[in-house]
Write a structure and sequence with these properties.
By secondary structure, the protein is α/β, with parallel strands linked by helices. α2 crosses α3, α2 packs across α4 and α2 packs across α5. The longest helix is centred in the first third of the chain and has 21 residues. The N terminus and C terminus are likely disordered.
Length: about 325
């Protein structure tokens, strides 16, 4: 005898659950449609059918965005479990092929991380014949970046994130040393400077020090370490942008604190010089953060593996600067 539940199940298209999963994760019809490579009207139609099926709005407007209803929140882990089981069943004899179709990667990373991450990952995808549109955004704040990761605006966060997040899975990439960056002819530079030269805290006293390496909780811990050494750190946002940083640094005696890789790149391309600190400063790992609910998605799982295999191992092989003139600025 056929039960009412069996009749109800027979009328459900599995693809409707895929639409539901995307809507619950993205909390936005437009982003869900882009994630599924579907048109916005078709996803809106699917949302209407889902609301009828569950007799619940599932998503409700809140300010400029959407929030999940209690029913929507309760469905999220259950829908993931059902679809993960279905994907495992269908994948028994059908391995994921990343070269099929076109993909999208939305990363959020500070400039010192993205200068290494973008050419490394782009080259790997190109070598493997994977078609993907890669966009990189700079975080306004670490807290906001984590919130947007949870809302599905970003696929990956890259950087030193000490902020707690129950929704993010963390993957270690590498450790990054810091250096002090200053213009050629700076009073601190009393003689020729070679790579690896160090500067004492006393030599920095009296000069403005701008933090261009860390922000958020890591930045606050870093600035506390600088204060223990008797130094005051200025927070200048422009130091996070390479062109404004060059304009700012070449014009005065400000000393910028930046990552070792960024410092090496800038010193090769300009008349800026780097010195490592001769005193103890915090050191934080660079990590990749991914929304936990997406880690087992075939494309995301494959992408995570590629980043972990290529970015840390290629870190010491810093890509050559593109278009750097023979004469320095």
């Amino acid at each position: 005898m056929t039960t009412a539940n069996e009749i109800k199940l027979a009328g459900i298209d599995l693809n409707l659950l895929v639409v539901l999963e995307a809507l619950l994760n993205e909390r936005n019809v437009t982003r869900a449609a882009a994630r599924l490579n579907k048109s916005q009207p078709s996803v809106s139609s699917g949302l209407g059918r889902l609301r009828q099926l569950f007799n619940d709005p599932l998503l409700q407007r809140e300010g400029n965005g959407m929030r999940l209803t209690p029913m929507g929140r309760s469905l999220r882990p259950r829908v993931k479990e059902v679809l993960d089981s279905a994907r495992s069943l269908l994948a028994l004899d059908d391995a994921f092929d990343p070269t099929a179709g076109r993909h999208r990667i939305r990363a959020c990373a500070s400039e010192n991380v993205s200068l290494h991450f973008v050419p490394t990952l782009s080259g790997q995808l190109r070598d493997l014949g994977v078609k993907a549109d890669l966009s990189v955004h700079w975080p306004t704040t670490k807290e906001e970046a984590l919130r947007q990761l949870g809302c599905g605006k970003f696929d990956l966060l890259l950087g030193s994130y000490l902020e707690r997040s129950d929704e993010a899975e963390r993957f270690y990439l590498y450790d990054e040393n810091v250096v002090f960056l200053m213009r050629e002819g700076h009073p601190i530079l009393t003689g020729p400077v070679s790579p690896g030269d160090a500067v004492e805290a006393e030599a920095l006293d009296g000069y403005p020090v701008a933090n261009g390496a860390y922000s958020g909780a890591a930045g606050r811990q870093f600035e506390a370490g600088m204060k223990r050494a008797g130094l005051t750190v200025a927070r200048i946002r422009s130091v996070h942008e390479i062109t404004l940083s060059l304009y700012y640094m070449l014009g005065n005696d400000t000393v910028a604190l930046t990552s070792e890789r960024m410092g090496a790149w800038l010193s090769r391309a300009t008349n800026l010089r780097t010195l490592r600190p001769a005193f103890d400063l915090p050191r934080f790992p660079v990590e990749m953060l991914v929304q936990k609910s997406r880690v087992e998605e075939p494309w995301m799982n494959w992408l995570i593996g590629q980043v972990l295999r290529t970015v840390p191992s290629a870190y010491g092989e810093w890509p050559e600067p593109i278009g750097v003139p023979d004469e320095r600025l």
